[in-house]
Amino acid sequence: MNAAIFPIPNHAEISKVINFLNLNHAQAASEGKPLIVTITNKQEERSSAQNRLYWKWMTQFADHVGSTKEEQHLFFKRKFLISIFKRDDAEYSEMCGAITALKQNECAEYKAIAEHVIKLTSTKKCTVKQMNEYLNQIEAFCLMHGAKLLIPNELMWCYQNGL
Q1: Considering its fold, how many domains does the chain have in total?
Q2: Residue 2: pLDDT over 80
Q3: pLDDT above 60 (res 163)
Q4: What are phi and psi of 45, to 5 degrees?
Q5: Tens-digit pLDDT profile for residues 4-57
Q6: Are residues 13 and 62 in the same domain?
Q7: Which pLDDT value is given to residue 162?
């Protein structure tokens, strides 16, 4: 049996889920592999348009402060994105707590581990809402530091609640 995902935007779609369960549960149970049903709310991943805007802004601010977009990317992840993930993801928060404990215990590997986690922290894991929050924080920070970030017309639609 193949895995199935059923978006349920309205009541009529529930029957598809019930039909699937009716067709597959007996066979799965007899094979000793009972079905597992997980119900979650859909979380939209950050859009490619949000990502394009993000990298345009990294370039703009890097030019403003005389650094590279990659340096700004690491800086803003450390400054804002990690706290968004800590708030919204219990496992991520637990990992950050463990890293903080390493620092408090003066573990020699603390800095290397922390830097590696920052590098691996990615906007790919952001929802549209989280990415918009992140962009808002970046825009406010840059404005406070004398850089008015530009939003190209073709990307204006992907950025909501801007300053």
Answers
A1: 2
A2: no
A3: no
A4: -70, 155
A5: 777 777 888 888 888 888 888 888 888 888 888 877 665 567 888 899 999 999
A6: no
A7: 47
Q: What is the residue-wise DSSP string for 31-84?
A: TT-----------PBPPHHHHHHHHHHHHHHHHHHTS-HHHHHHHHIIIIIHHH
Q: Rounded to a whole number, what is the distance in angstroms from the first to the last CA of the chain?
A: 50
Half-sphere exposure of 52 (CA within 13 A, CB side): 11
The answer to whether the beta carbons of residues 50 and 142 sit under 8 Å apart is no
Boundaries of domain holding 55: 48-158
Residues 64 and 138 grouped into a single domain: yes
Amino acid at 86: K
- The position carrying tokens 């990992």 is 95
Which tokens sit at 20?
């699937």
Give the per-residue pLDDT at 42: 58
For residue 15, what are its two tokens? 């029957």
Three-state SS for 15-32 is HHHHHHHHHHHHHHHHCC
Q: Is residue 144 part of a domain?
A: yes
Q: What is the pLDDT of residues 53-95, one digit of tens each?
A: 999 999 999 999 999 999 999 999 999 999 999 999 999 888 8
Q: What's the rounded Cα separation, in Å, for the pair 10 and 16?
A: 11
